[in-house]
């Protein structure tokens, strides 16, 4: 069983040297446990937070222990009544070929006609995050102008499409031309801004949001937040989902502290959220997402890296924006 452990904690940008690939015997499932062979695993920005030894909404992962990942896999052996060998399941497993976990922590994959891997994005945690952020936290209304940052990623692409379905004008901010094209040509965004090539990002937002911004779905922070904040209208909302531009900063770094001009937006409601706090909504949210994916009202793309040995590169790519849509790692025999 090859698996990646956190070998030491990064300072600033994580590097390959923070991870070590170790080989151990395939675990034996204990009472009520299920042995799962991973087919596809998800790398996510929040993992950077778990690598850091500081106070957060979740405990840090211990050095020397395997990195965790939501994954889809096949049951090899089951000591839990709910599962049998051959079942396709999803759960919080590891950057590993095999995992033995309590069956209570697994769910059967129910992706309908969509691929099972969608349980890791449009029909899984990122999709739920997009829904909670736009609908419950952002209280999206028809006619709103909605700006989404990291718009071509797993969460952002779904958030923008939910806003489009709700009858909004939707603007995405992203860092590559191919992503701009995907958002506007395939996903129905009204406009998309490339933050790397825009002369002045605040002017670029003004140009495509002539009546201002009613809802900002915040995934990035820093200068992108500053540029959007300039155009928030009275009674606008900011759903703070994440701030990936700040995740590699250390205490004392202060170049990227945006949004810096929020004090000029006194009638804006800014609300952060963690998707897992909204579990009581998931039955409803999942049913919605499934219908939209079935109807192709929500479309998705996957960027797939092959081989467990390439998992750290796939993770590091999230901070470079090498992923279009959801970044996944497919295991050789998955
Ligand atoms: P994505 O699929 O969006 O991948 C990350 C993307 O972020 C990259 O592709 C890149 O796109 C962009 N990015 C990375 N670094 C920077 C930077 N310095 N400046 C601007 N853009 C950058 O990841 P997810 O969809 O999984 O996550 C998106 C956000 O949602 C993250 O902030 C994450 O932490 C948050 N999140 C929050 C949850 C919650 O419960 N609150 C749950 C899940 C996710 P580009 O090429 O456009 O730069």
TrEMBL record:
SUPFAM superfamilies: GroES-like (SSF50129), NAD(P)-binding Rossmann-fold domains (SSF51735)
SMART domains named among the record's database cross-references: PKS_ER
Source organism, top-level taxon: Archaea
Residues covered by region (Disordered): 1-15
InterPro entries: ADH-like_C, ADH_N_2, ER, GroES-like_sf, MDR_fam, NAD(P)-bd_dom_sf
Keyword annotations: Oxidoreductase
Keyword Oxidoreductase tagged: yes
Oxidoreductase recorded as keyword: yes
Residue ranges of domain Enoyl reductase (ER) in the record: 14-329
GO function terms (MF aspect): oxidoreductase activity, acting on the CH-CH group of donors, NAD or NADP as acceptor
Pfam families: ADH_N_2, ADH_zinc_N
Protein name: NADP-dependent oxidoreductase
Organism: Salinadaptatus halalkaliphilus
Lineage start: Archaea, Methanobacteriati, Methanobacteriota, Stenosarchaea group, Halobacteria
């Amino acid at each position: 069983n090859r698996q990646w452990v956190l070998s030491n904690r990064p300072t600033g940008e994580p590097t390959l040297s923070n991870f070590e690939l170790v080989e151990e015997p395939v675990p034996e499932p204990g009472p009520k446990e299920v042995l799962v062979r991973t087919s596809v695993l998800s790398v996510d920005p929040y993992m950077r937070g778990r690598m850091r030894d500081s106070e957060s909404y979740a405990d840090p992962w211990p050095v020397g222990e395997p990195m965790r990942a939501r994954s889809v896999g096949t049951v090899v052996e089951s000591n839990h009544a709910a599962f049998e060998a051959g079942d396709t399941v999803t759960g919080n497993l590891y950057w590993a070929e095999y995992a033995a976990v309590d069956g209570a922590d697994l769910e059967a994959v129910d992706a309908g006609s969509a691929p099972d891997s969608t349980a890791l994005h449009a029909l899984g945690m990122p999709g739920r995050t997009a829904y909670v952020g736009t609908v419950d936290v952002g209280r999206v209304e028809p006619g709103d102008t909605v700006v989404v940052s990291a718009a071509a990623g797993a969460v952002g692409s779904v958030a923008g499409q939910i806003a489009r379905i709700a009858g909004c004008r939707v603007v995405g901010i992203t860092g590559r031309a191919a992503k701009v094209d995907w958002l506007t040509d395939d996903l129905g965004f009204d406009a998309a801004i490339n933050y790397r090539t825009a002369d002045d990002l605040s002017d670029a937002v003004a140009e495509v949001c002539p009546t201002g911004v009613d809802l900002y779905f915040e995934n990035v922070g820093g200068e992108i937040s500053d540029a959007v904040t300039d155009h928030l209208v009275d009674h606008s909302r900011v759903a703070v989902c994440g701030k990936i531009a700040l995740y590699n900063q250390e205490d004392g770094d202060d170049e990227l502290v945006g949004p810096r001009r929020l004090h000029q937006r006194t009638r804006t409601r800014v609300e952060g959220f963690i998707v897992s706090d909204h579990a009581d909504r998931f039955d409803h949210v999942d049913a919605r997402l499934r219908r939209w994916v079935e109807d192709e009202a929500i479309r998705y793309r996957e960027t797939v890296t092959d081989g467990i040995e390439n998992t750290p590169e796939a993770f590091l790519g999230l901070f470079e924006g090498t992923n279009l849509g959801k970044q996944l790692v497919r295991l050789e025999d998955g």
